[in-house]
Design a protein that fits this description.
The chain is built from 9 helices and 15 strands. It has 2 domains: 9-198, Heat Shock Protein 90, CATH 3.30.565; 216-328, Ribosomal Protein S5, domain 2, CATH 3.30.230. It has 333 residues and is an alpha+beta fold. Strand 4 and strand 5 form a beta hairpin. It binds adenosine-5'-diphosphate and magnesium ion. Residues 30, 34-35, 38, 59, 61-64, 72, 78-80, 94-101, 143 line the site of adenosine-5'-diphosphate. This is DNA mismatch repair protein MutL. Keywords: DNA damage, DNA repair. It comes from Thermovirga lienii (strain ATCC BAA-1197 / DSM 17291 / Cas60314).
Length: 333
């Protein structure tokens, strides 16, 4: 009979990292969220081999204080919350202090940053979770995070990465979703030194549509709808596709890209009629949302999911009616 033993810290660190970080796409999501939390207006993402050999995310946000750099890569170290009460009304994407620590544990990580209030920047290099270098350097205001050799020390995970093309596709989909949800930010995605996607950062209403127009196949017009069931607000974009296609759904809840079963259920309840591409933006008061139920923050729980379901169903119903009317008007008399 084997005795119970506590896992060695480097083994438990890798297991925990695996809950947060499973692919280049999940790293890019965490890094974009950090840049948004830092108040960045410009976010540049660059990949090599779909992020398997290198991911760089660069922003013009507030930066990290030189002395805080080693803390940034420690698990459960965060500047975003400080006590249990804060968990009830989280206004930032991050709060678990796990992303950089997890990324550091399974890659070679390099952070260059210059905080707004400091005259000089800092460089931190970490391999497999160990800090190897921390020194002052000249750099730009903002933060540049570089992740190399993902899962070099975690072969079981590395095996599950897709081809470079497959991983690039997954990262593109994350970046595009954020670009749609945050039309006022400037996003650039590069792969092997080629720009594959960029947005201009525009605050006009139309931008959602402009961006979706670029990324969704264009043979069908995009429908737009809104409901305001105080305090729940839902905005949706829908591109109906040919019958027989499924519902392809992206949901943002209070700015977070999540897997949400409530909106999905509302759309699915309309069956084939609602098939196609959906982009749904839900806004609820922060205290009506529990974001702390999943290590990668990929799921949220609504306090009042019944209300969300009702609001979403109403919205989908209106949009389906609208599209029927639209399609029943002949384009040319
Ligand atoms: P969390 O976002 O949950 O706080 P992370 O591990 O993602 O945890 O980041 C740890 C800390 O490092 C953050 O709380 C923040 O203070 C700092 N940080 C990370 N990325 C950036 C960035 N791009 N700009 C400024 N500060 C950052
Ligand atoms: Mg974070």
């Amino acid at each position: 009979m084997r005795r119970i033993e506590k896992l060695k810290p480097d083994v438990s660190a890798r297991i925990a990292a695996g809950e947060v970080i499973e692919s280049p796409a999940s790293i890019v999501k965490e890094l974009i969220e950090n840049s948004l939390d830092a108040g960045a207006t410009t976010i540049k993402i660059a990949l090599n081999q779909g992020g398997k050999s290198k991911i760089v995310v660069e922003d013009d946000g507030v930066g990290i204080l030189f002395n805080d750099l080693p803390l940034a890569v420690e698990r459960f170290a965060t500047s975003k919350i400080s006590d249990v009460d804060d968990l009830g009304h989280i206004g930032t994407f991050g709060f678990r202090g796990e992303a950089l620590g997890s990324i550091a544990a399974v890659s070679r990580l390099e952070i260059r940053s210059m905080a707004r209030e400091e005259a000089e920047g800092g460089l931190l290099i970490c391999t497999g979770g160990k800090v190897e270098l921390h020194r002052r350097i000249n750099t730009f205001p903002g933060t540049r995070v570089q992740v190399e050799d993902l899962f070099f020390n975690f072969p079981a995970r590395r095996k599950f990465l897709k081809s470079s093309q497959g991983e690039t596709r997954r990262v593109s989909s994350v970046v595009r979703d954020y670009a749609v949800a945050f039309p006022d930010k400037v996003f650039t995605l590069m792969s092997e030194d080629r720009v594959i996607f960029s947005t201009e950062g525009n605050t006009e209403e139309r931008t959602f549509l402009d961006i979706l127009d670029k990324i969704w196949p264009s043979h069908c017009p995009i429908q737009q709808g809104k409901v305001d069931f105080v305090p729940v607000k839902i905005t949706a974009f829908w591109q109906p596709l040919r019958e027989g296609t499924r519902v392809n759904l992206t949901v943002f809840v209070n700015g977070r890209r999540v897997q949400d079963s409530v909106v999905r259920a509302a759309i699915s309840s309309f069956g084939q009629a609602a098939s196609g591409l959906w982009f749904v933006i839900v806004e609820v008061p922060p205290e009506d949302l529990d974001v702390n139920i999943h290590p990668a923050k990929a799921e949220v729980r609504f306090k009042n999911s019944g209300e969300i379901y009702k609001a979403a169903s109403k919205l989908v119903e209106d949009m389906l009616m609208g599209s029927k009317q639209m399609f029943s008007i002949p384009l040319r008399p």
